[in-house]
Amino acid sequence: MDIKANLLAVKKTFINEDCLLVAVSKTKPLSDLMDAYQAGIRDFGENKVQELQSKQAQMPDDVKWHMIGHLQSNKVKYIASFVHLIHGVDSFKLLKEINKQGKKINRIIPVLLQIHIAEEETKFGFDKNELNEMLSNPDFLNLTHVNVQGLMGMATFTEDIDQVRKEFRNLKSLFEELKALQLPAFVQLDDISMGMSGDYLIAQEEGSTIVRIGSAIFGGRS
């Protein structure tokens, strides 16, 4: 497995050079992560808290760790001190817990709100009503230790490119709608994280600023 060559091949296809590539290293051994690191990758994505903690302790200090999986509220405390970005904030309860843990250690924690855009029940995320409810909740205005950097969404796992494109487009349009609102200062909305190994080019065409790529770099799951 030539990770460096894979990375170069992926980067070559990018439509938007400014789009951040998060290398999804879940289940991969440390040696693979170091190969990617030596090829210039600094942003790594993990979906399990325990694996994230363990790898963070063993990798160089300048690595930026992205929590990309479903995060349980009771696990936030284990990554609060070092996580670079939490991609999958899918409930107000979770956001409040992240805020609480950030407060304890006096750190503002960057997050993305996960929006349910897929026509599959298996994906997590806010629907539009839940999102509006949270944004208009007085408790939302009181958050002091989170920075809502943008939105994240995962498209339906399907061969139908039009379907995927439509879902990404819906997320982008919601993103623009939110940007037009008067929201608290901690809601910055700079990023849209959408697109993985199979659909990152469509995601970039539809305005993604962060893509999460695993198998195209590291090969299939270990």
Give an overview in words.
- By secondary structure, this protein is of the alpha/beta class.
- It has one domain (about 5-220): Alpha-Beta Barrel (TIM Barrel), CATH 3.20.20.10.
- Helix content is about 40%, strand content about 20%.
- The chain has helices at about 5-15, 30-40, 50-60, 75-80, 90-105, 130-135, 140, 160-180, 200-205, 215-220; strands spanning about 20-25, 45, 65, 85-90, 110-115, 145-155, 185-195, 210-215.
- An eight-stranded parallel beta sheet has the order 7-6-5-4-3-2-1-8.
- Helix 4 (about 75-80) links the parallel strand 3 and strand 4.
- The radius of gyration is 17 Å and the shape is globular.
Q: What is the CATH architecture descriptor?
A: Alpha-Beta Barrel
Instruction: Give the class-level CATH name.
Output: Alpha Beta
Mean pLDDT, to the nearest integer, reads 95
When the domains are counted, the total is: 1
Calculate the terminal CA-CA distance, rounded to whole Å. Answer: 12 Å
Named CATH topology: TIM Barrel
H-E order: HEHEHEHEHEHHEHEHEH
Low-confidence stretches: none
Strand order of the largest sheet: 7-6-5-4-3-2-1-8
Query: What overall form do the CA principal axes indicate?
Result: globular
